[in-house]
Amino acid sequence: MSTWEKTLNDLEAGRVRSANFIDGAWVANLEVKTQILEAFKAGVLKEENGFVDKHNLMPQTFNVDRGVRIVPGGTSVRRGSYIAKGVIIMPPSYVNVGAFVDEGTMIDSHVLIGSCAQIGKKVHLSTAVQIGGVLEPIGAAPVIIEDEAFIGAGAIIVEGIQIKRRAVIAPGVILSKGIPVYDLVNKRILAKGEPIPENAVVVPGNRPVKSKNFWAQEMGLTLQCAIIVKYRDEKSEASLVLEDFLR
Fold this sequence. Notes:
Strand order of the largest sheet: 5-8-11-14-17-20-24-25-22-23
CATH class: Mainly Beta
Helix content: 10-25%
Order of helices and strands: HEEHEEEEEEEEEEEEEEEEEEEEEEHEHH
């Protein structure tokens, strides 16, 4: 068995991950990511059920014993990704190679989980959420969504952004390294690459264009941002109780 094949098997079994939490920070597993890239190099095109992909990265198959509920309708879970017991996947959704989805997570319709993304326990990814993938550069950490986070419909999270546990991302929020996050509660701007804090409630916002371009000012042009408007409390907990019924 080749090294890359063993790595894909270990990823699917949850024995290894493409990113690990070490000394208080998420870091990419360079060896695992290297072997995923080696698998792409080793693969040859294969036709199966009307689709064409690398022969060694074809979608996984599921049975009742795996304890994963995948509703019919076009979902694909690629080879080398881990789906834990109790996960629910609504159609159509796509989980790419190297991704890790932990127990009890809900993946709603039209959700994309990119390569090597790490999704924690009891996370809710609402309809049309896009979680970006990071295979290269090899040392770049992927998008991280920690336990019990709630990601609202249509949210886009890319470029290795990290969401700490129990955070709530409102529908339509876009988070990338180029979009600043303003914390209204603590009156500060999060540093570039700083994780969205635990229990934070984040909504989409706009900020004025700050430049010497007076025309932009005259037109009242704004740029996109994200705003932490509060931190989870009893009221926000009540608004998320629907989770229990969806499961």
